[in-house]
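Input set for joint prediction.
Command: fold jointly, output tokens.
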Amino acid sequence: MPAIVHTAAKQTVDIGPFTLECGDTLPQVEIAVETAGTLNAAKDNVILVCHALTGDAHAVGDEEQPGWWDGLIGPGRFVDTSRYFVVTMNTLGGCHGSTGPASISPDTGKPYGGDFPLVTIRDMVRAQRRCLDRLGLGELHTVIGGSMGGMMVLEWAVMYPGHVKKVVPIATAAALTSVAVGYNEAARHAIQSDPGFQGGHYYPGPGPVNGLAVARMIGMITYRTEALFEKKFSRRLQEGTNSDIPSLDSLFQVGSYLRYQGEKLVHRFDANSYLRLLKAMDTHDLARGRGSLEAALSRVKAEVLTVGIREDLLFPYRQQEELHRELVAAGKSSRLIGIHSDYGHDAFLVEYSDWGPQLQQFLEE
Ligand SMILES: CC(=O)SCCNC(=O)CCNC(=O)[C@H](O)C(C)(C)COP(=O)(O)OP(=O)(O)OC[C@H]1O[C@@H](n2cnc3c(N)ncnc32)[C@H](O)[C@@H]1OP(=O)(O)O
Ligand SMILES: N[C@@H](CCO)C(=O)O
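tokens >
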């Protein structure tokens, strides 16, 4: 069993062969894990953080690199690492240290590429559970995460009700709306129609970089809001563009920004993982195989604090309201916070003042 290091630490945990919901077995699975804080003697202060689509295990910063949730988690912050032992894993199927399409298949000695199977949200959660077992961490104080991470949070509450005391699903839902699935289809099509895609067998080449950039551009529009774009860019043209005569080359600031965001993602994300994680979100439904959402939620034992962003275009606030309503109807302990933010969906990664204090209180009660 791997040793647990009880301060900020990174490790890769071998969880062995792993059979997915689709029936395929990955012969060897590794999960990249980062921890922050100290595990107490009773082992009852563990908070599991589940990342969103392009996140990774580095939620909490260290001397080398800031973490993507530093505004929320750290010593003396809303999730206080001087009290809690925070564990974050790169998801199975991802591209930041855990087994995914770019990993070498033990069967062929080559990267899986296009042969890597679909990993569902439930597979991701089962892999997390097995990883925690390997680390000797059976019980969770809280599971928290946003967007795709929030889907995992809800699955934790349903799949392992006896193992988690509290859950905090943020900017998420029991299943994506048809519009969100539509955006994801357009993003996948951009990647798969790029000549660099080659059916997913593009390693060690750069792969479908243009398609991935376009996919991110589409995504970014859904992660923000009209109000934010109006404030930041309005209809201004990018510097150097002739504003007097309309031209095919006219570049708006918003266009330049989206292109930049697309290029930025290409340097830190693998297209094969992007395709699979989008599909995992599309195909996810908390009710699948459980009769109904009501039946699924009837299994929940954890206290639930749902956080929604009222301006979220991707996971509309009505979805978090519905989740809360269903939980209450099922007699569960459920609270809902609806914040306002021009950031829209991405607010959970950038704005904490409206919900951080309530989260802190929820954790400490
Ligand atoms: C911190 C990390 O690296 S995260 C790594 C792991 N990834 C994740 O966890 C995923 C979640 N994170 C995210 O989605 C994002 O990082 C967010 C939401 C937290 C913040 O997004 P950001 O891209 O940092 O912020 P924002 O949308 O304001 O964009 C700012 C960038 O756009 C650039 N920009 C702004 N206007 C324009 C324009 N008109 N034309 C071109 N570029 C522009 C800025 O110069 C800035 O560039 P920089 O990132 O090189 O500094
Ligand atoms: N900005 C988030 C959006 C998806 O929730 C990410 O890239 O993971």
